[in-house]
Amino acid sequence: xxxxxxxxxxxxxxxxxxxLERIGQVLVACCLIAALLGLFGHHPLASITHxxxxxxxxxxxxxxxRIESTSDVRLKLEPRKDGNGVVRVWLDQEYLxxxxxxxLSPTPLxxxxxxxxxxxxxxxxxxxxxxxxxxxxxxxxxxxxSVRVDDGDALAVTQFVWP
Length: 163
Prior knowledge:
- By secondary structure, the protein is an alpha+beta fold.
- It has helices at residues 11-36, 93-97, and strands at 47-51, 57-62, 64-66, 70-77, 86-92, 99-105, 110-114, 117-123, 129-137, 141-149, 155-162.
- The strands form two sheets. The chain has a six-stranded mixed beta sheet. A five-stranded antiparallel beta sheet has the order 1-2-4-9-6.
- It is elongated and about 100 Å long.
């Protein structure tokens, strides 16, 4: 008794299927690598630090954030040597419009509102100190802004907000 199994083959379909599987595997691998590099959340490689030429302002923030999740911006400030310990930190309006400030530590002496931004005035003992802003982004996309201390150079801030 001779029984032969007869199966139809569709080789072009099979080749397309294999190609799609490989593309899917590459996409999954790329997503995993991006996640490990911090593209989707908090990770050491996802944060960035900028510093002014005179070293009076240093800013550290996450390059990537999620909408409505809390993100921290840390400013290291050094008062002027000839000053009385008062430090003025200016944030431009474009940057301020992109988020809601949930907390600010330490509490500033006062906040001055200007046409193109807001200035937070801090009192220090004359030594370097850190200001921590906890923010919640309100829109998806790329966020641009500027931060400066007293009348110094402005540092550019660029962040991407995921949905």
